[in-house]
Amino acid sequence: MDNYKKFIFNFSSSYSGGGLKRLKAFSYWFNNNGGARFIVNDRLKRNMGHFKNNIYHYVNLNRIQKTLNLQKYVETIIDETDGCLFYYSYNIPMKQFKTKLSWFHLSNVLPLMPFKNFYIPIPRQIELYWLGFLIKRGLNSCNFISAESRNSMKLISFFSQNISYLSANGSDDELKMISKFKSSNKFDNIAVLFGTYYHKNLVDSYKVFKYLQSQNKEINLHIFGDITTIPIEIKADPKVIIQGMQERSSIINLLRRASFYINTSLVENSWNAAAEGIFLAKESFISDIPAHRELIAGFNYENLNIMDTVVPILRLKNEKLKTNHLTTWDDEIRKIVKVVKKSLASNYLISNIES
Questions:
Q1: Cα(189)–Cα(221) distance, integer angstroms
Q2: Is the distance from CB of 105 to CB of 146 less than 8 angstroms?
Q3: Which of 62, 111, 195, 278 could form a disulfide with 132 if both were Cys (CB 3.0 to 4.6 A apart)?
Q4: Considering only CA atoms, which of 329, 311, 308, 353 is closest in space to residue 148?
Q5: Where are the alpha helices (DSSP H) in the chain?
């Protein structure tokens, strides 16, 4: 069995969403392959106990530590490994550490983009600008960089010439659900959208809903996500049902019965955010952005530019879609491990990492 106990994965800034999903997938894989070390947000203490082969270091960073990018805790944990071979950072600005190899994974493209047109409040814009500065400054401190779409990789190339890799999120759950529900032909008269952060562009999502409503007066729109970022006009519509924050199972249960899925996001690092929707709902209306284009490459769709949206809308139907380009977590993690092993073996001749 391979020895990964000198591999450290830093997920300390994530405790929900895509970060938590990736953390659990990595924890599962390395736990089944002898175990590795993980730096995890303190909020997840109750979530990692069943991965007995892994070693977890829980941290609770305050705003000052995050703002100043203070990472003494990483140095301490690296010292405990008695010779760290590989350090992986999940969207935490990279610094120079005593490790043979280091890898930065970009999970949020907003800090690297001109985000003034994404309806983001000024205080959050300032935070993103500073995070972008820290990320860009640290890119040359790592050996490898990865992102979750080819468009994001292209964006990174403007700031660093280091070796970069596509590291998509695994679609294990999506593939299982699609297989389970693909024969279903019973759909409710509802539209569903999930994700209410500012760049999700709910104003245009509502325009799509009103377009659907003009042809179908009885349709209802279900919105999942933080209710504080939903525009007042949308909340006041009696045909809009605000679901708030819900378990993923609840979202999927409604999504698989939905006649329509809506996603008018202005930017995404990963196309996974839309994958569940387009493969489970009967019909989808998604924004024409690079990440969505990657998801639907080779699919048949209709380009709509009739609703006065920020970007055109792509309309596609579930029965015409194929899942052959979705990937699994096992595939994605093995890609990373293969790159790391090859580099360690060629550059450092590490005998306890088998090729």
A1: 9
A2: yes
A3: 111
A4: 329
A5: 17-31, 63-67, 72-80, 122-138, 150-156, 172-181, 202-215, 232-235, 248-255, 272-280, 290-295, 329-348
Question: Could you tell me the two tokens for 294?
Answer: 């990657």
Bridge partners for 258 per DSSP: 188
What is the rounded CA–CA span in Å between residue 326 and residue 225? 25
Radius of gyration (Cα) for the chain, nearest Å? 21
> pLDDT tens digit string along 226-275?
899 999 999 999 999 999 888 777 888 888 889 999 999 998 888 777 88
Positive/negative CA dihedral, 42, 44, 46, 48: negative
Considering the chain, what percentage of its residues have pLDDT values greater than 90?
53
As a whole number of Å, the end-to-end CA separation of the chain is: 11
List domains and CATH numbers for the chain. Answer: 4-169+327-348 (3.40.50.2000), 172-320 (3.40.50.2000)
CA 258, distance to chain mean position in Å, is: 23
For the beta carbon of residue 170, count every other beta carbon within 10 angstroms. 22
pTM for the whole thing?
0.86
**Residues 292-341: pLDDT tens digits?**
998 888 888 888 888 889 999 999 988 767 777 788 999 999 999 999 99
Does residue 50 sit in helix, strand or coil? coil
Q: How far is CA 184 from CA 177, 222, 277, 311, in A?
A: 11, 20, 15, 32
